[in-house]
Amino acid sequence: MGGWSSVPSPGVVYGGENRRPSGEVSKARGEKVQLACCGVAKRICQLIVETRTMGLDNHSSFFDYHEIIQPAGSASPDRWGTEESHQDPHQSLPVQIFLFLHDIVSSLGLLPECVVVSIIYCERLLRCGGIRLTVRSWESILLGSLVLACKMWDDLPVRNHAFADVLPVEFTPKVVCRCEMAVATKLCFRLWVSEEEYQLNGRL
């Protein structure tokens, strides 16, 4: 993910820029978004592999897909099938993560630095203890982190219902809010990211 060095730190370049620029600016932003999404997908996969290596892939938490999508007592327990049924078995995990993230970011015109900040929040969350990235939890953790990053660093933050509009149908506005609040609460609303921390993560 060393290529992140080409993605500007929060507020350095895009502070006053129109959300949907045209021409060369739009093309450059698209390339930076793709680069950032690729870097985040690779890092998320590394963290999931680390969880498996430690024998903790059965670790469960509030962030697990079933818990976020279908809280206890809210619907039939077999509504969503098996725990990984929402993932495409014909795609590798890195590709699934990249497409999930890139589809959101490109559809909503989010800034590339929001993508970088989202992985900083993800890793900060893991350091809080009691949370592991697994195949069941990465979507809700990444989504909650991205929503928070957008609201913290984008001059024109996207509303939660807009995220829901571009996500799979089970990610309703209520679910998006649940992901956001779960991450924010676990982080004790410690959301500031210094430029030094940003650049340090950008060199991973």
Describe what you observe in this structure.
- It is a single chain.
- The protein is an all-alpha fold.
- The protein has a domain at 26-52 and 92-202: Cyclin-like (Cyclin A, domain 1).
- It has eight helices and no strands.
- The protein has helices at 23-53, 65-69, 93-108, 112-127, 138-153, 160-166, 173-186, 195-202.
- Helix 1 (23-53) packs parallel to helix 4 (112-127) and helix 6 (160-166) crosses helix 7.
**Silhouette:** globular
Question: How large is the share of residues in beta strands?
Answer: under 5%
CATH superfamily of the domain at 26-52 and 92-202: Cyclin-like
Low-confidence stretches at least 5 residues in length (pLDDT < 50)? 1-19, 72-86
What's the CATH architecture of the domain at 26-52 and 92-202?
Orthogonal Bundle
User: What share of the residues lie within helices?
Assistant: 55-70%
Domain Cyclin-like: 99-185
Keywords: Cyclin
GO molecular function: protein kinase binding
Pfam families: Cyclin_N
